[in-house]
Amino acid sequence: MLKPQEGELKKLLIYLHKSPNTVYSLVNGKESVLAYYDTDFESDNGLDESDEGYEEFHCIVFRKVNDGTLFEVNYHNLPEKVMCKGVTVIGKE
Known about the structure:
- This protein is α+β, with helices and mostly antiparallel strands.
- It is 16% helix and 45% strand.
- It contains one helix and six strands.
- It has one helix at 4-18; strands at residues 23-28, 31-44, 56-64, 70-74, 81-84, 87-90.
- It has a six-stranded antiparallel β-sheet, with helices on one face.
- The longest helix has 15 residues, at 4-18.
- The mean pLDDT is 88.
């Protein structure tokens, strides 16, 4: 079963793949970052596959508009809201 954040991440990935060359606003509280989608990949938490607590998850890489810095988003650090062209992709209105 998907955790709620994983469902939101999947929804975001689908949207990103449909509109990859668009500026996105990633919002956390009163702060927001404007960024472009760069890539996505599967990762894990660094534990051995046989260890209890091992998990795999998807990561999304964004590139900041202002300085080109890359940063990673996954279900552990998902922004409260992601917007594109005034439309809320994930999160609350």
